[in-house]
Amino acid sequence: MEFRQLECFRAVCEHLHFTRAAEQLGISQPTLSYQIKLLEDEVGVPLFNRIGKKITITASGDILLKYCLQIFGALSGFRNEINELRQMERGELSVAVLIGEINEFVSGVLGEFSRDHPNLKIRVIGSEDVVAPILNEEADIGVTILLKDDDRFGKIPIYEEEFYFVMRDDHPLSGNTYVEFDQIRHEDLIMFPNTYRCRQMLDAVSFGIGFKLLPKIETTTINSLLKLIQSGAGVTILSRTLLHLYERQGLVAIPIANPSLTREVGIVYLKEKYLETAVRELIDLIRQSALELNLVKTK
């Protein structure tokens, strides 16, 4: 049974007239009659009563018509849902995001995106390993520190992020134009745990210089970290992303030198995976938001 035969059958049922049905379908009347004959031969029963020029639907034809309408209704529903997906009216979008400040940044963007697309289901996967959800097709894209070249992934750079030495505005180093990384070893440090990617980067840098970071206090939240610094309990090192996202009254942020600390933040996705319209719009919004937050340095 072919789809074209069902189209012919539906048209004849609608008009109860072969010539008018053929005109609607844009085919000749003999071609239409042949398609109906093939369909009747396949089901093994007549679908129409032909009494002179009058045509009626048989009991078997009524049964087929019921299921035929269900098939065409399902097809119409499929087309509508595909169009809705293209227009981002419904569907699901999943984003894997590196835990920490990048997650904070993307969450703000997703809030705006969700308001603009209320019928689109959005899932955020916070992870220290953004690659795994993408490879497992649990996430459409990932926002993370950009990977080394990997032929499996496409990547879209968003911004290059610097790190700063953050302290109270009455700290002895608060008037400096920069602070050398080596000076940090003499300070009371307040830092994120070593499970955080940014902390791992700082530990690696200090190890390369010849000392180990020994924080006085470790905390898992940025709010508690900032409050501790504002209270005078110590100093920290933070990314430019966090400095732009949070109020830091009474604090100063000074660039770090020798070495300066930078990392490239961007979007990764499987090259072979088709990016739906909603995903492409979200990527554009993330890039635009980075510009508006001054995370992207203008040359």
From TrEMBL:
Alphabetical list of Gene3D superfamilies matching this protein: 3.40.190.290, Winged helix-like DNA-binding domain superfamily/Winged helix DNA-binding domain
GO cellular component: cytosol
UniProt keyword Glycoprotein present: no
Official protein name in the record: LysR family transcriptional regulator
GO MF annotations, alphabetized: DNA binding; DNA-binding transcription factor activity
Database matches in InterPro entries: HTH-type_LysR_regulators (IPR050950), LysR_HTH_N (IPR000847), LysR_subst-bd (IPR005119), WH-like_DNA-bd_sf (IPR036388), WH_DNA-bd_sf (IPR036390)
CDD domains reported in the protein's UniProt record: PBP2_LTTR_substrate
SUPFAM superfamilies reported in the protein's UniProt record: Periplasmic binding protein-like II, Winged helix' DNA-binding domain
HTH lysR-type domain segment(s): 1-58
Keywords: DNA-binding, Transcription, Transcription regulation
Family membership: Belongs to the LysR transcriptional regulatory family.
